[in-house]
Design brief:
The protein contains 10 helices and 10 strands. By secondary structure, the chain is α+β, with helices and mostly antiparallel strands. It folds into 2 domains: 132 residues, 60s Ribosomal Protein L30, Chain: A (2-Layer Sandwich); 159 residues, Phosphoribosyl-aminoimidazole Synthetase, Chain A, domain 2, CATH 3.90.650.10.
Length: 321
């Protein structure tokens, strides 16, 4: 019978990659890192739980990939260059084939963005993943939620709603054809964190947030932090070809406005920056849609071309409901 790996053997075999930006990585009581001169450290932590943030029977590669992607997206929203992560992994049992694939998904995406895994922990229990990510951003230049100003444009990268439509299809609430389902499932399991966009927006955007809980909910955080109102034109909200033909369908509206799991960026910028942002979109080969304006007031208002208020049945993903 094959002997079970110990905790330290598991870490050594699967979670001890070479590091490039670290003085001392795993193997001691703490990691040591040097922050570059003129930079501030941006730090974020996410806990992802089986059955809540991902299907319990999801492919381990996809789980690892998405756990890294979600954290990279937080760095993107701050305009930070991601550099280091720590990983705490709770496992119901030691399944080396599962762990190997999880590690591959997690570390491959991290390597794509030049991120060092510098430590963490493993323990036994219900499947859950906790990631802390750290990055560097020029001192005093980080993108925040609190910078939106009346008169600013509101922009959204890529498209929104596809991941939520994939979930709706799985639950039997919405029907996608085979090609549409394949595309939407890839958006759900393999989101593309907009790290390059976030870094390019430093000094250009007045505020930013990543769309993880839903466009309305996340713009609501910006509106609250900036003491303004976000006024969104529903017809301008970017939908993929999977959803564009059903724009008036209530579930499509719900998915795009409140579905979450998009990991796109929503940001504000002065109207004078429009041509610069159009050029940036072309350079990054990434669609940027101007979806509304910042106005005096509070909260988020979404309206269609006739001026009718478009209200999703739920405002966004809530971790406790």
């Amino acid at each position: 019978m094959k002997s079970m790996l110990s905790e330290f053997e598991l870490i050594e075999r699967y979670f001890r990659p070479a590091t490039d930006h670290t003085v001392l990585a795993g193997g001691d009581d703490a990691a040591l890192i040097d922050v570059s001169a003129g930079q501030q450290l941006a730090v974020s932590t996410d806990a992802l739980v089986a059955g809540r943030h991902f299907f319990e029977d999801a492919l381990p590669y996809d789980i690892g990939y998405k756990c890294m992607a979600a954290n990279l997206s937080d760095m993107a929203a701050m305009g930070a260059n991601p550099r280091w992560v720590t990983l705490s992994l709770t496992l119901p049992r030691v399944d080396e084939s599962w762990i190997s694939e999880f590690a591959r998904g997690f570390l491959e995406l991290g390597a794509e963005h030049d991120v060092d895994l510098i430590g963490g922990d493993t323990t036994s229990g219900p499947l859950a993943v906790c990631v802390q990510i750290m990055g560097e951003v020029p001192a005093g230049k980080a993108l925040r939620r609190s910078g939106a100003r009346v008169g600013d444009d509101i922009w959204v990268s890529g498209t929104v709603g596809d991941a939520a439509l994939a979930l709706a299809h799985v639950r039997g609430d919405f029907r996608l054809d085979a090609n549409g389902l394949d595309y939407a499932m890839k958006r759900l399991t393999h989101p593309h964190p907009r790290v390059a966009l976030g870094r390019a927006l430093v000094g250009l955007a007045t505020s930013a947030i990543d769309i993880s809980d839903g466009l309305v909910a996340d713009l609501g955080h910006v509106a609250h932090a900036s003491a303004v109102q976000a006024v969104v034109d529903w017809e301008a909200v970017p939908l993929s070809s999977v959803a564009a033909g059903d724009r008036e369908h209530p579930l499509v509206q719900q998915a795009a406005l409140a579905g979450g799991d998009d990991y796109e960026l929503a940001f504000t910028a002065p109207a004078a920056a429009r041509s610069t942002l159009d050029a940036l979109a072309a350079r990054l080969e990434l669609a940027l849609a101007r979806v509304g304006t910042v106005a005096a007031g509070h909260g988020v208002s979404v309206r269609d071309r006739s001026g009718r208020v478009v209200t999703p049945s739920e405002k966004g993903f809530d971790h406790f409901h």
